[in-house]
């Protein structure tokens, strides 16, 4: 190469050649960056679009499948004078509204539901808690673990607000739900918990405006509590079980950001008294079942199969037969 260079002006030529090399290298790098950027820009939207299409397809398939069980549910009628909707104005929540609300749902790191017996229970109540733990696993298609029972210890009031009161009608002690949720359950929420819900045999109240509540679940904090105190009033063992399953699955729904259902008679509908609880079905309506299948990534037919098996095992023959009919309905083309 050297022997072909001119003998004059060598220094200036070298500078020009060096400049050309620098410009060439710069252009190569610049073009490479542009191509690389274009490649990355093209990749990301394609990936996002693919995921969006899959999600849209999944939601459509779920909606189409769940629609087939609409005949099994009664449309919500006008409330009675003492029913929940007579004193609470609620808009309800469709499946699509639920998705748009960015709801709390299980994650890869938080998959498990924990059930905590809180306080003292007799043998009948202990059996009921075990049955309900099994039902929640079938209902939400998530692993459920029953924790060891813990005493219900009451700490000092915070800010002068009492944690308990005496009910004026029953003359029995009631415990404030906020105390259990915030002071007991929140600090002990396991790291892998999708939700933590406690059973208690004590009567509950949320605030001074209400006489009592069957249970209460947090829409944001993944904790909840429900009481067995009133659920055995004027009923047999089967009725006691059904009421407990309904209240438990209802409160768990709140912990996954599900609001009260106002479209159908549904296990997620609000209840003001035991008569209203008894009137509700044991299962979630089409709108709410779609939410459950979406949050747990389960198929309707598989979910109904698990629920039918639970009902057969626990002597709920009528409910088992209805779940079987739902299986047949969703499998029809």
Largest sheet: 5 strands, mixed
Tell me the β content.
5-15%
Low-confidence stretches at least 5 residues in length (pLDDT < 50)? 1-16, 18-44
Between the first and last Cα atoms, what is the distance in angstroms?
Answer: 79 Å
Number of helices: 10
Q: How are helices and strands ordered from N to C?
A: HHHEHEEEHEEEEHHHHH
| Count of extended strands | 8
Radius of gyration: 30 Å
Structural class: alpha/beta
Shape: globular
* Assembly of the depicted chains: single chain
Order of adjacent strands in the largest pleated sheet: 2-1-5-8-7
Q: Please state the average pLDDT score.
A: 87
User: What portion of residues is helical?
Assistant: 40-55%
Offer a concise description of the structure.
With 333 residues, this protein is of the alpha/beta class. The chain has 10 helices and 8 strands. The longest helix has 58 residues, at 10-67.
List the helices and strands and how they pair.
Blueprint: H1 10-67, H2 84-87, H3 95-100, E1 112-117, H4 123-140, E2 144-146, E3 164-166, E4 173-176, H5 177-185, E5 193-200, E6 203-205, E7 215-217, E8 223-227, H6 237-255, H7 274-279, H8 286-296, H9 300-313, H10 317-331
Parallel strand pairs: 1-2, 1-5, 4-6, 5-8
Antiparallel strand pairs: 3-4, 7-8
Describe this structure in words.
The chain has 333 residues and is α/β, with parallel strands linked by helices. Helix content is 48%, strand content 11%. The protein has ten helices and eight strands. It has a five-stranded mixed β-sheet, with helices on both faces. The chain has a three-stranded mixed β-sheet with strand order 3-4-6. Helix 4 (123-140) links the parallel strand 1 (112-117) and strand 2. Helix 1 crosses helix 8, helix 4 packs antiparallel against helix 9 and helix 9 (300-313) runs antiparallel to helix 10 (317-331). The relative contact order is 0.14.
């Amino acid at each position: 190469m050297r022997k072909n260079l001119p003998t004059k002006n060598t220094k200036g030529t070298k500078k020009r050649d060096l400049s050309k090399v620098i410009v060439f290298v710069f252009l190569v790098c610049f073009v490479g960056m542009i191509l690389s950027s274009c490649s990355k820009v093209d990749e990301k939207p394609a990936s996002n679009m693919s995921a969006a299409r899959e999600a849209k397809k999944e939601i459509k398939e779920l909606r189409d499948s769940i629609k087939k069980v609409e005949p099994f549910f009664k449309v919500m009628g006008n409330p009675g004078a003492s029913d929940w909707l007579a004193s609470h104005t609620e808009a309800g929540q469709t499946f699509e509204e639920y998705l748009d609300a960015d709801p709390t749902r299980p994650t890869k790191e938080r998959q498990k539901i924990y059930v905590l017996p809180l306080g003292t229970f007799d043998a009948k109540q202990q059996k009921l808690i075990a049955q309900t733990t099994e039902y929640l696993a079938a209902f939400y298609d998530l692993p459920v673990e029953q924790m060891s029972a813990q005493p219900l210890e009451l700490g000092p009031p915070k800010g002068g607000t009492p944690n308990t009161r005496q009910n004026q009608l029953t003359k029995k002690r009631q415990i404030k739900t906020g105390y259990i949720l915030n002071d007991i359950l929140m600090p002990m929420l396991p790291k892998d918990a999708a939700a933590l819900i406690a059973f208690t045999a004590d009567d509950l109240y949320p605030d001074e405006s209400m006489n009592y509540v069957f249970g209460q679940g947090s829409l944001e904090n993944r904790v909840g509590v429900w009481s067995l105190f009133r659920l055995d009033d004027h009923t047999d063992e089967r009725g006691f079980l059904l009421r407990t399953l309904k209240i438990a699955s209802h409160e768990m729904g709140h912990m996954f950001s599900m609001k009260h259902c106002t479209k159908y008679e549904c296990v997620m509908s609000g209840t003001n008294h035991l008569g209203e609880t008894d009137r509700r079905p044991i299962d979630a309506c089409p709108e709410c079942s779609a939410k459950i299948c979406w949050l747990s990534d389960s198929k309707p037919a598989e979910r109904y199969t698990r629920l039918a098996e639970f009902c057969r095992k626990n002597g709920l023959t009528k409910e088992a037969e209805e779940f079987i009919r739902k299986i047949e309905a969703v499998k029809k083309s």
